[in-house]
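Archive transcription. Copying these from loose printouts into the bound notebook so they stop getting lost. Printout 1 of 2:
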Amino acid sequence: MKLITFILLLILSPNLSFGQADLNNRKSIFLEIAGSGGLGSINYESHFYKKGITEFTWRLGFSLAPIDKNNGTAIIFPVMINSLIGKKKHKLELGIGQGFTITTKGSPFALTVASIGYRYQAESKNWFYKIAYTPLISYLVDFQVQQWGGVSIGYTFNNTIK
């Protein structure tokens, strides 16, 4: 319960800041269908660095997924670092992170999550759309790669892309 409270405080904290001042206002929330959070997730994203045509963001998500009778439901927290590469509204998005999971029966596990995709966000618009290949990589017991992908729609608050 303390972990969930801590994560919610991170998501809701308006004073979280990294890097350049003009990027601190660029925070987004998006719904991802399939993708890094499993069947679907709600995600918070914050931009923290920009140089040239490359921007860096971090994201934290939340998802629930049914597993089976023995394990119950999985509570998934995908945490990722992403880079957005491109000019204007068309961007290549690359990301890597961890998907931390705990089941309602108390079993924890982790998966490495990766992402390579396309992001469209018009310069003066707050809405964005993404499509990505998001393999889920298991390495704790044995090495497995689950082929996966996702689509997203999101909203950027205080969009300063000019």
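Printout 2 of 2:
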Amino acid sequence: MRIGVPKEIKSEERRVALTPGGATELVSRGHQVIVEHGGGEGAGFSDEEYVAHGACIADSAAMVFDQAEMIVKVKEPQAEERARLRDDQVIFTYLHLAADAVQTADLIERGVTAIAYESVVGPNGGLPLLAPMSQVAGRMSIQAGAHCLESSQGGRGVLLGGVPGVAPARVVILGGGVVGRNAVQMAVGLGADVTVIDRDVDVLEDLSSRYGSALHTLHSSGGALEEAVLGADLVIGAVLIRGARAPHLVTTEMIKMMRPRSAVVDVAIDQGGCIETSRPTTHANPTYLAYDVVHYCVANMPGAVPRTSTFALENATLPYMVKLADLGPTEAMRSDSGLRAGLSVCQGQVTEPAVAESLGLSHTSPEEVLGLIQHAA
């Protein structure tokens, strides 16, 4: 198979979908890897390294898209990239379609087979291709939030961990999944006063047993959530519903009542955000004020640490790339129900029910599209 690796063009995105070492793995199995000139530079990989590992270098993105049977990326294809996709191609990347009607419509029109990293399900029921970037984003959320609280950034001028004789900042983390757990680890490590809120009692018990009195846990209910948010210096939005748009847990009215110059970091922004006043920002302009609260809503947070993020992502995605290349996309998804769960759009049809529900579109099951069943259930 011919596998194309275009340079990421989303604002301030420096990750790359495949390292030179990953290219070696695919080339050794008889596949061709085509990398756009300069595609790995943001993560510290030169064209010469790719060539030394058996990849070919293409002069332009157009050449990559023209030649490749499978496109592997990090972020969702931008408009100019979507225009280059064909109905005989596979694109394997983060898509986050539930909050992006325009991208979804373009992928339907192009007839491409689009597999979303964030929806692939592992053997244990987890999300193995989302987890590494969730780990990075969770850790970065505290780093970013601490910066937002500095007065030079418009914040309250509060040090996250305080100092002897001065109380630490109050950090509230919404969600105890992969993002939330990593945010808790960082916030507790910095000495903040940390509360995590989740609706799963087992998740709260696990976190409580791990951190003891260093962490407060709350079961998610309207009253408890509002009280915690209004008393916070920093709120981390870390809520995920697989494939679906994130729910607005923090309302505009709550934001209006928060402490002046407190901060929110909405890690769920690429799924629409779990804070009602959130809107996507970039690393170039990461924050804005809404109702006197600093909002940090960068949709590709791990892009700020591209080398770490690239290795972490490839560790998870490469085995699936190999399977797709070795078996071909149809057979790979037929044989692997977890990979099949990542199929979002195929043959002009939406195959992810959560995306269809979020956007008000019709839905055809992956099994029907792939010929595993004759009619949708």
